[in-house]
Amino acid sequence: MFTCDACGIEGKGTPYLCLTCLAFWVHPTCASLHRTVRHVRHKHTLNLTYSLQAHQSDHQICELCVEKVDTKYGVYYCSTCNYVAHLSCAADGEIMDNINVPKVEDTLRNDNPEFDESVCLVAYDVKKKIMGEDGIEIAIEIKHFSHEHDLILTHELKNSDKCDGCVRPILTPLYSCTQCSFVLHKFCVELPRKKWHPLHQHPLTLSKPPYYTKRFICDACARWGNGFTYNCLKCDFDLDVNCSLISDRLTHDGHEHGLKLSNATANGNCSVCDFKGYVFRCTDCPFALDFKCATLPKSIRYGQHEHPFTLQYTLEDDSGEYYCDICEEERDQKPWFYYCADCSYPAHSECILGRYPNCKFGGAYTFDCHPHPLTFIEETKDHPQCHNCRNTCKELIYQCANVIST
Asked: Is Chloroplast there in the keyword field (predicted)?
């Protein structure tokens, strides 16, 4: 056993040894580290240094895993931004080729070898536009890549309860289809077709779920979704729209300090829901927040309830007994919950949002295995047998629309 003088981690096997002083031992992998690298999470190159002292940098937290850095050992360092990363974090599968990788500010340039020129950065074509009162042109009719019909700009809420892009409750302004129930927030229409995200080393493409099941599991929040995904087909990597909007820095009303995205090797448990996965860590205290909790809506309406519910981060009183007024089950004191202050009405987040908040049920989907359109439903009471795999259908089911209508 020995302690590597490059990274500070104990090692086994045969190290490299300095024959001059006989006191410097390094792992073979540390001895072959690149002197300069570029990482997907930072816009400048990082330089390997073994002389980062405390007075050189008042930021001694690894920007990738958000853990303390021991400046006695080597680190990757950007002197321009005072950006520090552990050797193991910077080299853990996200190092990108020094020649081929684009800078963050140039992520969508056409000379990027990862950029597919067949994919336009704009997700829609303008069919008709008018001049607004402020002199800015407004697209009032468009053709969006995700839908076969043209979409019309409107400020009137449609029958659809959720946007087909972000799968959040419908708000105006929006683009709707006059031939079917498809609807998109104006914001979702304007999402870029191509983007980078710090959770993945390749550029991601905005698309409908590119899978036979027409749904996906978000790699950030681990929730099922059937709206838009930012997808890497090469790696089967998916981000739903809401998770894709969060970068590697997060300011959240549920915590007093700023949070930083921790890399994959340092996955931990969320301090709110205890889910283990990608988390944002606080450098000032042991608080961590996962994507699922970070993307909870701050305010939402529920069913026919008269008032909106607001996301609460602390208990509503000091009674010591806390229940959900929807399911009437006891509430754990740690997770955040929704609350109607007008009615003193608390509720579990899952009771308000449902088990699958990123799924829009209904619609008509076509599959090669059946001649009629199929409707996406959450579950059935009789749990029928799947006509393809013959297993029991319990939830997230496609059922023939003809059967449902009868």
From this structure: no
Please list, in sequence order, all residues whose beta carbon lies within 8 angstroms of the beta carbon of residue 104, skipping any fewer than 6 positions away: 42, 43, 196
If residue 293 lies in a helix (H) or strand (E), which one and from where to where? helix 291-294
Count how many residues are written for the chain: 406
Angle 63-64-70 from CA coordinates, rounded to 5°: 65
| Rounded alpha-carbon distances, angstroms, from residue 11 to 16, 48, 90, 352 | 11, 20, 19, 50
DSSP codes joined into one string, 83-130: EEEEHHHHTSS-EE-TTTPPPGGGTT-TT-TT--TTS-SSSEEEEEEE
Cα separations in angstroms, 119 against 136, 192, 193, 207: 26, 11, 7, 11
**Average pLDDT for runs of 10 along the chain of length 406:** 87 84 85 84 85 62 86 87 86 49 40 48 91 87 96 84 94 92 95 92 93 94 97 96 94 94 76 93 92 96 93 88 94 93 95 96 88 90 83 89 61
Compute the distance between CA of residue 274 and CA of residue 287 in angstroms, rounded to an integer. 11
Pair of tokens at residue 268:
């931990």
User: How far is the C-alpha of 314 from the C-alpha of 339, rounded, in Å?
Assistant: 11
List the domains of the chain with CATH numbers: 2-96 (no CATH), 124-189 (3.30.60), 249-294 (no CATH), 362-405 (no CATH)
pLDDT at 265: 55
CA angle 307, 312, 317 (to 5 degrees): 95
Task: Render 127-168 in DSSP notation, one character per residue.
Answer: EEEEE-TTS-EEEEEEEETT-SS-EEEESS--S-SB-TTT-S
Identify the pLDDT of residue 110.
40
Only one residue has tokens 């929807």, namely: 326
In whole angstroms, what is the distance from residue 279 CA to residue 247 CA?
Answer: 12
3-state secondary structure 176-241: EECCCCCEEEHHHHCCCCEECCCCCCCCEEEECCCCCCCCEECCCCCCEECCCEEEECCCCEEEEH
User: What gap in Å lies between CA 203 and CA 264, rounded to an integer?
Assistant: 18
Q: Which helix (H) or strand (E) holds 269?
A: strand 268-269
Write down the pLDDT at residue 125.
Answer: 94
